[in-house]
Amino acid sequence: MIRLKRTDCNHPDFIKLVALLDADLAIRDGEDHSFYDQFNGIAGIRQAVVAYSGEVPVGCGGIKEFDANTMEVKRMYVVPEARGKGIAGKVLEELELWTTELGYTHCILETGKRQPEAIALYNKHGYQIIPNYEPYTDVANSVCFKKSVSFTKNQYP
């Protein structure tokens, strides 16, 4: 059973999972990694979710304000041995729910073209591709998404 915990960027399990994410992205992004890394600090993330299988942290994600109506989804990650079990979708749904509870109406996010699993996840959860927003406007490897959130729990298969 997966348990979700709401926390913030200072939680040690969130920090540990983000370090694993950064190691994975360093490989996927190659020479582009230092560019992306400058936008992926966790200090501004006041809302983070950690997913647990038993007592073991297996996934995470966070949101931070983008503008008055929009939260940006950041630092989504599931450890390799826990992938394919719907954990990322549960974390994403919890972040969307939190977004609506905070009074925001949209979620946006950026992911890389070298992350097909992430692109599939966001498509499955109703995100639409949008023109790249700053600071990704002219970045060929970036794909940006947006979703209006008025949340109904378990609305996805």
Detailed description of the structure:
The protein has 157 residues and is α+β, with helices and mostly antiparallel strands. It has helices spanning 12-29, 33-37, 87-101, 116-124; strands at 2-7, 47-53, 56-67, 70-78, 106-112, 128-130, 142-148. Strands 1-2-3-4-5-7-6 form a 7-stranded mixed beta sheet, with helices on both faces. Helix 3 (87-101) links the parallel strand 4 and strand 5 (106-112). The longest helix is centred in the first third of the chain and has 18 residues, at 12-29. Residues 152-157 have low confidence and may be disordered.
Short descriptors:
157 residues; alpha+beta; seven-stranded mixed β-sheet; 4 helices; 7 strands; 32% strand; globular; disordered C terminus
The average pLDDT score comes to 90
Estimated helix fraction = 25-40%
Ends: how far apart? 17 Å
Order of helices and strands: EHHEEEHEHEE
